[in-house]
Design brief:
Length: 326
Amino acid sequence: MNRHLLSASDLDRDDALLVLDTAAELAALTDRAVKKLPTLRGRTVVNLFYEDSTRTRISFEAAAKRLSADVINFSAKGSSVSKGESLKDTALTLEAMGADAVVIRHPASGAPDRLAHSGWIGGSVVNAGDGTHEHPTQALLDAFTMRQHLAGGKGDLAGRKVTIVGDVLHSRVARSNVLLLSTLGAHVTLVAPPTLLPVGIETWPCEFSFDLDSHLSSTDAVMMLRVQRERMNAAFFPSAREYSRRYGLDVRRMNALPEHAIVMHPGPMNRGMEIAADVADSDRSVIVEQVTNGVNVRMAVLYLLLAGAQLGESEGSDRTAEVVAP
């Protein structure tokens, strides 16, 4: 029985659907005037962020507070980390304070796994992004958004075609989405310059291509990835203008999509580079909706890890998480 969420590969199809179904139930409850539920009253959730974040950190904070948990926000800047404190000593401090769950974002790939299996923390660990490795809750909220628009909000995404475009090499979002979407039955194609595809891409459960235009007419969802210049130490493409010309989603390319297709982006966006402003603000775009869905999905993850059916159980696909309103 797994009490952590470290990778999208931790979730089989039943686990993923349990999270998505629970998130849908929580979304219905949070439409009320009073959004709080008493589910995690008395529990403490720590947001342990070693990297800058807006959407993910605030989303986890809002999720925990809506479930009535006590929330401690920890930022590496301004803490003892800036004085050289190790991850172990920080973790032991949090354990001494009674943390029931630690949501961690860290620049080093594998840091959440280290925290979960070190014995330093007795509670659950949730990976909120580790280096260029994974970001499982982002993949869950993306799948939730796709399911709402492409599958009527029910079931998996079997047979749906998803195109993920851009800086795959440095993208933890791409990795988690490929794993989760393939688990849910979707057909994923990664599109990027050869320099921005990782070594070993042939072993991933997806296809890859260098030509964006050839995939637009048959995709159900196109996800644009941010060009992560802060992680680059070399020239991966000739210029921003050249990248935008070949791999940017402009109005012309958006109009080539099927009528039902949606446009996604995990944020933050480089408007005018990987996505045009007119596309980001169009009716096809579900980017703001992804942020809203992120709160509900992260509520579901915290609920299932701390109060509900544990992720990793294998009691069958008919599992449901009963969320009780006050």
